[in-house]
Amino acid sequence: xxxxxxxxxxxxxxxxxxxxxxxxxxxxxxxxxxxxxxxxxxxxxxxxxxxxxxxxxxxxxxxxxxxxxxxxxxxxxxxxxxxxxxxxxxxxxxxxxxxxxxxxxxxxxxxxxxxxxxxxxxxxxxxxxxxxxxxxxxxxxxxxxxxxxxxxxxxxxxxxxx
Length: 162
Prior knowledge:
- Keywords: 2Fe-2S, Iron, Iron-sulfur, Metal-binding.
- The chain is α+β, with helices and mostly antiparallel strands.
- It has 6 helices and 5 strands, in the order ββαβββααααα.
- It has helices at 27-34, 80-83, 93-100, 110-126, 133-137, 148-161, and strands at residues 5-12, 15-22, 54-56, 59-61, 76-78.
- The chain has a 5-stranded mixed beta sheet.
- Strand 3 (54-56) and strand 4 (59-61) form a beta hairpin.
- The N and C termini lie far apart (51 Å).
């Protein structure tokens, strides 16, 4: 059975893009292999490790589990490569916090960690609250190096500055 190729368009890091690809291809492969955006990492492919975490219309999503056919032409995808453009300055406050708290060790999971933390901070702030320990407990990105204490401190620091 042959799979038909279709044109798929969306906004990636502030720029309209189009790809000609089969409907069932996961967004992670569209981003990495077709568009050359390598910030979202492949870890598990089933939304468990969350190394691929990016934003879809400002909300946390895992492109490893979303087929390109689910993305609309008006959808805005932001990866770690486009995050700084969403804030003032050369880096996003979460990226600055990551540096301040020396969060990264091997660094593989860090793009997904930063994107998940940013989405969490934005969601909590939108509800009119401050980041709590319970909020931090909802971050489920896997870090094989175990830098979770530094991640938590960096998130609290960034949240206070956003």
